Amino acid sequence: MSDLGERVSPRRVLALAVPALGVLAAEPLYVLVDTAVVGHLGAVPLAGLALGGTLFTLVSSQLTFLSYGTTARTARLHGAGRRKDAVAEGVQATWLGVLVGVVLMVLTQLLAVPIAELMAGPGPIADAAATWMRVALCGAPMVLITMAGNGWMRGVQDTARPLRYVLVGNGVSAVLCPLFVYPFGWGLEGSAVANLIGQTIAAALFVRALFVERVPLKPEFAKMRAQLGLGRDLVLRTLAFQACFLSATSVAARTGAEAAAAHQVVWQLWAFLALVLDSLAIAAQSLVGAALGAGSAPRAKGIARQVTWYSLGFGIVLGVVFAALAGPLPTLFTTDGAVLEAIPHAWWFFVLMQPVAGVVFALDGVLLGAGDAAYLRTATLLSAAIGYLPLIWLSLAFDWGLVGIWTGLTLFMLLRLITLLLRARSGRWAVVGATRAEATAG
């Protein structure tokens, strides 16, 4: 870019991205602690935690619009110099989280057993999962309040406080979990209670932050409906991701134990690096939304280019690092010779996709910051329907194994890359205005 005034410093991007990465990584790290504690109870409690935790994650991931959608709306208002209006969006997202969370909590009490039995079949594993979910999902409103809090704070370019709040909540949970499980003798339920207490503490800190802002706290259903409109597109987009990833896991499991284990190792590394790259996308979302809210499409486009180049460079570095670790790193996850032999069939796809993922995640953040969720929804659904899902199930039919599965993922990412680059290049996403409605109306 020739106009240095349209640039944003790397330090500013990192100031937003690094705390955001901490928030994204805090929950997976807590799950590892929880798993280690419960694992000593035996196979059935651990399997119950795995099933219950997976179902919890599936539900919560469908509702990430409370964070990403709220950031898109508040960032524009913040950029327009309307901080109180930006925080007011956070208030309404918080109310929405409470309402949706209460519904989820009630449904869980009624349906935990049949859902667990549907997934695992009747027996002790389903019983353990249902018991854990009934306690843990009492925290659904708190989880969604935390998502909303993350959303509005990212929008006003404050990613440090959310990190502190989440670390406090998860830290308390990590301390209480072994105490409740063993000395208190609560077993698997103790894990869920510790989880619930941590979620409540984090949610209380986010609610307190709203009180400090001194904005009206009453619910406004018109704003909630507008947020749900954006949320619908993001939910459909997330469904496309989940359909793809669950299909890949299912096909790997049907291929054989070694293939399933190898896929799990590489997939978990992919998921972890996705979190790392997503932190840059969150910075892009906040900065682009603020630029558009301030009425500067050139600045928004300049930020989009910068962050995309940063993320591409980071993706290349990650690819090089994990190419070098192709030999030693898998042995940290397994010593099974057959699994280690299968891992390279997925590993090199994973390595080569890191630069692609860098660009894709950055542009996701750019378009989310612009509130261009409808385009993201359509592009993701088409990429899944044309690229990923057909190859995944053809892999099962023709016994292509991990090569077929990861070829499908690669095609999915390449199609997303093409659709996102076309949109970014068109510039049609960069419409200015304090809200997306004002921008499109203008």
TrEMBL record:
Coiled-coil annotated residue ranges, if any: none
GO cellular component: a single term: plasma membrane
Q: Which domain of life is it from?
A: Bacteria
**Segments traversing the membrane:** 49-69, 90-112, 132-153, 165-186, 192-213, 234-257, 269-295, 307-326, 346-367, 374-394, 400-422
InterPro entries per UniProt: DinF-like (IPR044644), MATE_fam (IPR002528), MdtK-like (IPR048279)
Which Gene Ontology molecular function entries are recorded, alphabetically? Answer: antiporter activity; xenobiotic transmembrane transporter activity
UniProt keyword list: Cell membrane, Membrane, Transmembrane, Transmembrane helix, Transport
What does the record say about its membrane topology? Multi-pass membrane protein
Localisation: Cell membrane
Q: What is its main location?
A: membrane
What family is it from?
A: Belongs to the multi antimicrobial extrusion (MATE) (TC 2.A.66.1) family.
Q: What is this protein called?
A: Putative efflux protein, MATE family
